[in-house]
Structure formats: structure tokens, C-alpha cells
Specification:
repeat; mainly alpha; TPR repeat; Serine Threonine Protein Phosphatase 5, Tetratricopeptide repeat; 323 residues; 0% strand; Ycf3
Length: 323
């Protein structure tokens, strides 16, 4: 009863309540493998991936043939960047249960992350052959096909995902990305519109729609989309960089400077942000501030092996100092 209740709480996103139910189940029977899986899932949902892995370890110790424990441990390992270890866990889950649809999908994601694109597609193919209505696998296969330049095949996968689930916002967003890359800007905007109508708090879709509007010269409309993306997720440097660039183009140098500074607070390792902030400072008459930013950009370019950009920044610094 506690397990069933915990699973319901977990599926509804109530991770703390789920955790309590699984704790009760473990107190009643400390040797029940699935109770540790449940508690591990709850810990993972609460963001403690390392503690979740410890619970999956316990579940496996109690039942070495529990495929779900390997799969879920793989998810937690992948989330903290342990990709090869996650891959090994998915292999074990599939060895125990060769029809484990989710494990094929999850293994495909890790293979794609590791650059094994064709092997990832093979895993998504297998997941789809086991469940022809598995929208996640269509979406993920579409992403890999797009990465490989197979744009029309990617669109076909997103179409299929949407035909199975017409309210699948992620597939509309991803299809919009591909259409945008193919130059179908209005069709891309229509897809982002649909994604946003399904999920009004979909920051990535606002960001992507803003980028397409910017490409079409609709700069104020693009800024409005970036505003919305930032209000939903204020911790993504990309949103500030592109809004800052548009503000700069429209003559709002102070607004651009503010956006670039905020982007640097979030991610201080992107040389391009220092470069563009330096440009804004030049326009605002802050020559020394611009030189400082250019020096920082040059150092980051050098450290990251971008020697052409490094040399350009050094030339810009010399020019500024000479004026």
C-alpha cells in the first residue's frame, strides 16, 4: 500500500511526500528491493542524485535481476555526467529485460551525448518497434537525425510524435527548430506558437521564437519573447545575450550593457559576452572598461584555443589604447 501510494505521489511530482511513503515501506520490510527503487526515485526528483544512486545500489544488492533499478540508476548517473557508467547500467537493464522500452530510449540518449549517433538511432528504432506510440523515442530520434543533417527525416519523426500526442509541446518546439534551419521561418513560428499555447511557461520556445523573429527583422517582438523567457527562467545566459544584442542594435546601449553584465554573472566563461559588453562600453565612452572586457575576452579565447579570435581581440585592444 505504501509503495502504490508513493508511486502515485511521485508521478504527481510530490517527491517529498513520495519519499515519506517509501520510507514507511522500507521500515515495514527492509528487504524489499522495489521500496529502495521508489525512495531512490523520490531522492532523484528532489535533486539528490548521489543519494538516489545509493538507494538503487541497495535495490540491486537485494535483487540483482531488478531491471528497473539498473535503468533508474543509469538515469541518475547520466544526470550527474557519468555517461559511460550510465550506459553500462542500461546495458544490464536490457540484458535482464530485452523488451525494456524505456531503457532503450535512455541508452539512446546517452549514446547520442557520447557522439554515438547511429547507435543511438538503433536504440530509438528498437524502442519504437516495441512501442509504436512511444512519443519520447520519436522526439529523441528526430533530434539525432537533425544533428546528422537529416532534416526532413527529423521532421517526419516530430510529425509522428505529434500525431500520437497532439499536445506534445517539446515536439512542436523541436520541429520549429528544424523548420527554422531550413529557412521556413513562418512555419517555425507557427510551431513555437503551438508549443507555447500548450505550455505558457515554456521558456525555450519563447527564446527560439524570439530568435526567428529577430532573423525576420521583428526586433521589438523578439525582445518581448526574450523578456518572457527571462521572466520564466532568469538563469539562462543565452536569453540576456540575445536580448542585449537586439537592444544594442536598436540603440539602447545602456540596456545592452545591463543584459551583457547579467549574462556574465550567470556564465563568466563565454568570451563573446565580454567582447560585446566591451563594444557597448566603447559606445558609452567607457574606454578603460572596454579595454578590461577585451582583455578578459582575449584571455578566454586564448585559453579555449580560439587563436584567430584571440588575435582579433589583441588588435582591438591595441587600437583602443592607441586612440
Amino acid at each position: 500500500a505504501y509503495i502504490a501510494k508513493g508511486n502515485r505521489k511521485f508521478e504527481s511530482g510530490f517527491y517529498q511526500e513520495a519519499y515519506i511513503e517509501f520510507e514507511r515501506a522500507i521500515t515495514l520490510d527492509p528487504n524489499f528491493s522495489n521500496a529502495y527503487i521508489g525512495r531512490g526515485n523520490a531522492k532523484s526528483g528532489l535533486g539528490d542524485k548521489t543519494a538516489a544512486i545509493a538507494d538503487f545500489d541497495l535495490a540491486i544488492k537485494l535483487n540483482a535481476n531488478n531491471a528497473a533499478a539498473y535503468n533508474n540508476r543509469g538515469l541518475a548517473k547520466s544526470a550527474i555526467g557519468q555517461k559511460p557508467a550510465a550506459l553500462a547500467d542500461y546495458d544490464l537493464a536490457i540484458a535482464i529485460n530485452p523488451n525494456f522500452v524505456e531503457a532503450y530510449n535512455n541508452r539512446g540518449i546517452v549514446k547520442s551525448d557520447l557522439g554515438q549517433k547511429q547507435a543511438a538511432i538503433a536504440d530509438y528504432d528498437r524502442a519504437i518497434s516495441l512501442n509504436p506510440n512511444y512519443v519520447l523515442a520519436y522526439n529523441n530520434r528526430g533530434k539525432v537525425k537533425s544533428d546528422l543533417g537529416q532534416k526532413q527525416a527529423a521532421i517526419a519523426d516530430y510529425d509522428r510524435a505529434i500525431s500520437v500526442n497532439p499536445n506534445y509541446a517539446l515536439a512542436y518546439n523541436n520541429r520549429g527548430d528544424v523548420k527554422s534551419e531550413l529557412g521556413q521561418k513562418q512555419a517555425a513560428i507557427a510551431d513555437y506558437d503551438r508549443a507555447i499555447s500548450i505550455n505558457l511557461n515554456y521558456a525555450e520556445a519563447y527564446y527560439n521564437r524570439g530568435s526567428v523573429k529577430s532573423d525576420l527583422g521583428q526586433k521589438q517582438a523578439a525582445i518581448a519573447d526574450y523578456d518572457r523567457a527571462i521572466s520564466i527562467n532568469p538563469n539562462d545566459a543565452r536569453f540576456y545575450i540575445l536580448r542585449g544584442a537586439l537592444r544594442y542594435d536598436l540603440g539602447n546601449k545602456q540596456g545592452a550593457l545591463s543584459d551583457f553584465s547579467q549574462a556574465i554573472k550567470i556564465n563568466s566563461n563565454l568570451p563573446v559576452i565580454y567582447k560585446v559588453r566591451g563594444m557597448a562600453k566603447v559606445d558609452l565612452g567607457d574606454k578603460q572598461g572596454a579595454i578590461d572586457d577585451y582583455i578578459r575576452a582575449a584571455e578566454l579565447y586564448r585559453r579555449q584555443g580560439e587563436m584567430k579570435d584571440y588575435q582579433q581581440m589583441m588588435a582591438d585592444i591595441a587600437k583602443l589604447k592607441g586612440n
